[in-house]
Task: structure prediction
Amino acid sequence: MRFITSIGDLHSVIAALRGAGKRIGFVPTMGALHAGHMSLVRKSKAENDTTAVSVFVNPTQFGPEEDFEAYPRPIENDRRLCEQAGVDILFAPAAGEMYPGGYATYVLQERYTEAFEGEIRTGHFHGVCTVCCKLFNLLKPHRAYFGHKDYQQSVVIRRMVRDLNMDLEVEVCPTVRESDGLALSSRNVYLSPEERSQATALYAALRRAEEVFQSGERSVAPMADAMRKVIERAPMARVDYIAFVNPETLREVRRVESEAVILIAARLGRTRLIDNLRLTAK
Ligand code: PAF
Result:
């Protein structure tokens, strides 16, 4: 595996691969890799000649009150996991390499970035779009792999790729969960044992809404009420939002006839967790 930290070195490696006609799969991450990331790596390896992973805790997607400094950075462990998984390129630049002095250009996306995570984390998606655009320009992948857990992010990235005519496919892969349903996230390490046990309420609430939907309910209000009742059993959880949205437009719906995605975000102590579930009528 090549471990690359400089853009100059990356350019020559990517140019050689592209010149040799290799198809490049790319998994962008902020590190602290877990089984969710590794499932993206496996998919990329199955579908491409070369798999590249980036590990970069992107400062522009964190607000001033957020956990940029505290975000876990176990780079040696990440490097070992990538090596073991057969990753070909691990790109781990320093912040100054990606945003050198005088940096002034950002990708701003309207509409899809304004609600939910975008409303609570002002500027978050501008940072995400900017860094993904830069990483796509650098790695020149044929395909890039994202997790379904960050559902709004996956819609935003697909939109950016379409709107800016970027020449790659975006693949969105299933959420990987602990055996009790908690979606894997690098932020789960922040949870105290009590918070960790109550964090299962997010997925339990999503599953409860699905049960209500599959029993024939089509109005969102009773499904959302059923979710809130589940969350009440986890007194440490503070819900930021529960929203039933059109899977493509992210517009909120009041009824679900055939398909919708339920988005949920909640805080347990100082940790914010997000999850989602796709409803599809049987
Ligand atoms: O999902 C993430 O880990 C990040 O938002 C991403 C896509 C790597 C951009 O920094």
Q: What stands out?
A: The radius of gyration is 19 Å. The chain has ten helices and nine strands. The longest helix spans residues 124-139.
